[in-house]
Every structure is written in C-alpha cells, then in structure tokens.
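Work Package 3 (structural annotation) set out to generate three-dimensional models for the target panel prioritized at the project kickoff. During this period the team completed the workflow that converts sequence records into discrete structure tokens, so that structures can be stored uniformly alongside our sequence database. As a representative example, we reproduce one entry of 196 residues exactly as it appears in the project archive.
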Amino acid sequence: MEATLIINNIKLDLGHRELNEISYALGDCDRTKDIYHELAQSPSAETRSNIVSQSHLHTKTVKLLLSDSQIEVMRSMINQDKFISKMRKEDIERFINTGDAEILTDIVRNIDDLTQEYEVCEKDWLCEKLYQQADPSVRYELADNDETSDFILRKLIKDPDINVSHTAKETLKEIEDDNIWDEDSEDDMDDEDIDL
C-alpha cells in the first residue's frame, strides 16, 4: 500500500507502522470515512482491525472487511452490530469454521442478535453448529446462555465435561422457573380481571 503524508508541500512516505498509528489517531467522524476505506485495504491485519472498531464506516467498507480471513480482524468484527447486521449465513459459517475459541464464544454471546435481531441464520442451526465444537469453553458458554435452543441444552446435560453438563442443567432450570413464574403472573392478571 502506497501512502504519503503531505504538509505544506513537504512529503513523507509512510509504511505500515505509520499507517497503523494513523488508523488509531484519526477522529471517528464522517469526514474520515474515505480514508478508513483505504486503510481497510491495508495488508496489515492490525490496521484493518483498528478500522473495524470505528463507528463511521461506509457500507462498502463494512462489506469489504466482512470478507477478511485474518483471525485478529474477525475477532474484532464479531461483537459489532454494524458487522453482524450485514452478515449472511455464509459469513457466520466461515467465522465458525475458524475453530477459534474467542470467535466462537463471542458468537454464542450474540445468538440473539444473529438469530432474532438481524436474522442472519436460524437459531437451531447456529446452536447445533456451536454444540459440535471440540473446545469445552465454547460448549460451556452455550450451556450458560438462556438463548440456546432447549434441545441443545438437553444434549449439553450429557456433555462429558462436568462444568458444561452442570451449567446446562442450571440454565434449563432457570428457563423452566421463569416460564412457571410467567404463567403464574398471567394467572394472577386473569384473576384480577375477574375481580373487577
């Protein structure tokens, strides 16, 4: 990537280190969107990762970065609504296929956004993909999430890892207790209606 800093007609060629510093230092505003788009094409993963964290990005920049296969960049994207909202099912599958525990646990934490808020994919499909992961920390996060599909939580109760199994039992119990409480609240409201 070629870059030159010009101040009062004095030129200085910039390398990846200076561009990385610039990607940190520029103000996050509309007037920097074009520069961010150029920096999003940098061969430096660190620079591209810095661009991911900016709020003011063109849609074309978000789409460009979504195709990035560098783990560091992908880790930065998976927690950001502006990227999740533009994902397709193929994107989330590519993120899952990295096998990276940090990316996978962040996906678990964003099940609701991925399946409900932005409808990137179906909840059962996503939970099944995450359930199949070898890393117990991913399955533990899935067992601890009340957005996990019930049938996956029931599978996780039989997980060979005791922490995963125990947590899945607790999560299912909490969900069931919440459902009973909700039903009781509805019954109380019905009784109040009758008293009126």
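DSSP finds 13 helices and two strands in the chain.
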